[in-house]
């Protein structure tokens, strides 16, 4: 089929690396892998931090211009069969897709829609209403976590949903070794350094490392950069400098190579929708230490591919890290199971098949 792909928060072509951009790119690749024609039809970004009237009016003016531009193109070229909107939510609603789907009779689909009922009133109400309209219009809303699906169905009872578990392309992890050849003392994290949940996770990680036994041997490699880099590094100032290796931003292949040479992946995961980095770490044969919070249990199997500790419990989190540092057998067993979990259940090929089946059914329902 011919698919118009649109991501109102961050286009697959956006210059800034993030999990959101990575998932958008993988969805495009998965669709193309199954033989579909995929067009990223717009770079229009509807994201706004300001819910005020001026911001809303300015966004609507830009929306009309973009709808007119695309309509003109489709008037002289072949129009698509389906509109695929990735990750609309109240700060970045799909303001163009529903209009174009109506005008051209397209099947409308969303993936990873997020709906917070608390935004139904207050300053974000207009924006939220657009998200709800998309959920109601969609032939199917593809959810990546059961948590998200439950949220959509409780807020919009007649919303049609289907599950596509978070996945990654494991090609970069095809060749080992996988964390088994060195002593189990090299910890690693991969995350942007920005305000909010990421900074909260860095804060918790620093405090947990400070509580490790003084005589325990370990080091931490940190991959990532961002606007809070200086403040993030200060969080770890209570630890010996030679324990932390700040590596900055790395390419996807460099990240894969560094993960494969580490021993365990440590990231608390405050507020994580799910976290593709967890799947990448597991594909590299690393056990994960995270919190049992938000969407993390969707990508880490507690006691099988890693250890999930109670939310906010820094002592428990520190103890879990200490356990893996002090028990190479446990670390290796969990690491092998983690790799098998990703290869067998969260592979690109499996996800592409599932996605193809969901969209084929959605198109059939429309026709």
What does this molecule look like?
The protein folds into two domains: 2-167 and 347-366, Glycogen Phosphorylase B (Rossmann fold); 170-345, Glycogen Phosphorylase B (Rossmann fold, 3-Layer(aba) Sandwich). The chain has twelve helices and twelve strands. The chain has helices spanning 19-33, 53-76, 97-104, 125-137, 146-155, 197-210, 229-235, 252-260, 276-283, 314-326, 328-345, 348-366, and strands at 2-6, 37-40, 82-86, 107-111, 140-143, 161-163, 186-190, 219-223, 244-248, 264-266, 288-291, 306-309. Helix 6 (197-210) links the parallel strand 7 and strand 8. The longest helix has 24 residues, at 53-76. The protein starts with a strand and ends with a helix. 44% of the residues are buried.
- In CATH terms, what is the fold-level topology of the largest domain? Rossmann fold
From the alpha carbons, calculate the radius of gyration and give it in angstroms.
22 Å
Helix fraction, binned, reads 40-55%
| CATH class category of the largest domain | Alpha Beta
Distance between the termini: 13 Å
What class, by secondary structure content? alpha/beta
> β content, as a range?
5-15%
The tally of strands reads 12
Uncertain runs are none
CATH architecture of the largest domain: 3-Layer(aba) Sandwich
Total number of domains: 2
Strand line-up of the largest beta sheet: 2-1-3-4-5-6
Mean pLDDT: 93
H/E element order = EHEHEHEHEHEEHEHEHEHEEHHH
């Amino acid at each position: 089929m011919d698919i118009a792909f649109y991501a109102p928060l961050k286009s697959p072509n956006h210059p800034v690396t993030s999990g959101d951009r990575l998932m958008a790119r993988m969805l495009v690749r998965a669709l193309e892998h199954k033989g579909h024609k995929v067009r990223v039809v717009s770079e229009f970004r509807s994201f706004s931090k300001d819910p005020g009237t001026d911001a809303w009016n300015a966004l609507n003016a830009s929306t009309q211009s973009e709808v007119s531009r695309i309509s003109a193109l489709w008037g002289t070229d072949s129009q698509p069969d389906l509109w695929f909107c990735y990750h609309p939510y109240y700060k970045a609603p799909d303001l163009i897709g529903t209009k174009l789907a109506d005008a051209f009779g397209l099947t409308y689909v969303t993936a990873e829609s997020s709906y917070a009922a608390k935004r139904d009133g207050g300053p974000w109400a207009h924006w939220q209403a657009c998200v709800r309209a998309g959920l109601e219009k969609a032939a199917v809303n593809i959810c990546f976590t059961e948590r998200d699906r439950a949220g959509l169905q409780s807020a919009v009872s007649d919303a049609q949903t289907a599950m596509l578990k978070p996945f990654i392309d494991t090609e970069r992890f095809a060749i080992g070794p996988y964390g088994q050849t060195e002593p189990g003392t090299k910890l690693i994290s991969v995350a942007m350094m920005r305000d909010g949940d990421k900074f909260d996770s860095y804060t918790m990680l620093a405090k947990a490392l400070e509580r490790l036994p003084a005589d325990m041997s370990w080091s931490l490699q940190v991959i990532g950069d961002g606007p809070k880099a200086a403040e993030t590094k200060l969080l770890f100032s209570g630890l010996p400098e030679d324990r932390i290796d700040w590596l900055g931003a790395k390419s996807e292949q460099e990240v894969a190579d560094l993960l494969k040479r580490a021993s365990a992946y440590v990231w608390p995961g405050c507020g994580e929708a799910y976290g593709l980095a967890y799947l990448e770490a597991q594909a590299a044969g690393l056990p994960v230490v995270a919190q049992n919070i938000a969407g993390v249990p969707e990508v880490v199997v507690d006691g099988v591919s890693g250890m999930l500790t109670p939310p906010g419990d820094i002592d428990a989190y520190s103890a879990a890290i200490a356990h893996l540092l002090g028990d190479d057998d446990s670390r290796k067993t969990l690491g092998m199971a983690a790799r098998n979990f990703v290869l067998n259940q969260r592979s690109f090929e499996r996800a592409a098949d599932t996605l193809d089946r969901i969209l084929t059914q959605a198109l059939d329902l429309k026709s």
